[in-house]
Write a structure and sequence with these properties.
Strand order of the largest sheet: 1-3-2
Helix content: 55-70%
Distance between the termini: 34 Å
Mean pLDDT: 85
Shape: elongated
Number of helices: 5
Largest sheet: 3 strands, antiparallel
Strand content: 5-15%
Number of strands: 3
Oligomer: single chain
Low-confidence stretches: 164-170
Structural class: mainly alpha
Order of helices and strands: HEHHEEHH
């Protein structure tokens, strides 16, 4: 792995740790992770191969990313405080996030340190046609995990801001000033 790949992967893992401490739900909550995965997708997603079972691999890992993202977003606490929404990632959310991000890092390190032959054999046995299929699958898994987690948090925050408030004007709102 290159230094840039390590920094990117570690930054994605650290995002959830930033949310272990309760803080205001603001634009940065959404923009930072989305910005990081946009850069990752732009940097690594050259193509999406469609030959053989490439799309099956890509769809399977993308579905895993979606499941991890939705579950992580659902396990993130959102509560009103003084007219603002507060967010705090719980232990389950953190574990799911690290599991998804760590699995990709672990796979890459394993491939670079002796696992390449095993991946090649698996690819041949399962009609996965190129290295790019693995790259696309893992990049789309990461993108999907981040997007679905952020979307889940956003939807939950909108629902939280509009339900249970005594008056519409007193409803907690997403802090758009940060």
């Amino acid at each position: 792995m290159t230094t840039t790949e390590w920094i990117t992967d570690i930054a994605l893992v650290l995002i959830v740790f930033r949310q272990l401490r309760e803080g205001r739900l603001d634009r940065r909550t959404f923009l930072i992770p989305l910005g990081i995965v946009a850069v990752v997708a732009y940097s690594y997603l050259d193509s999406v191969p469609t030959a053989g079972n490439d799309l099956v691999l890509i769809a399977a890992l993308t579905a895993v990313g979606a499941a991890l993202g939705i579950a992580g977003g659902a396990c993130t606490r959102i509560r009103p405080l003084d007219g603002h929404l507060m967010i705090k990632a719980g232990a389950v959310s953190a574990v799911l996030w690290v599991l998804g991000m760590g699995a990709r890092m672990g796979f890459q390190v394993w491939v670079e340190h002796g696992g390449a032959d095993d991946v090649a054999r698996f690819s041949i046995d399962h009609h996965i046609t190129s290295d790019q299929a693995w790259v696309a699958a893992f990049v789309l898994m990461a993108v999907t995990e981040v997007v679905t987690r952020v979307a889940t948090i956003y939807v939950r925050s909108r629902a939280r801001a509009t339900t249970g408030a005594p008056a519409a004007s007193a409803a907690p709102v997403l802090d758009r000033t940060a």
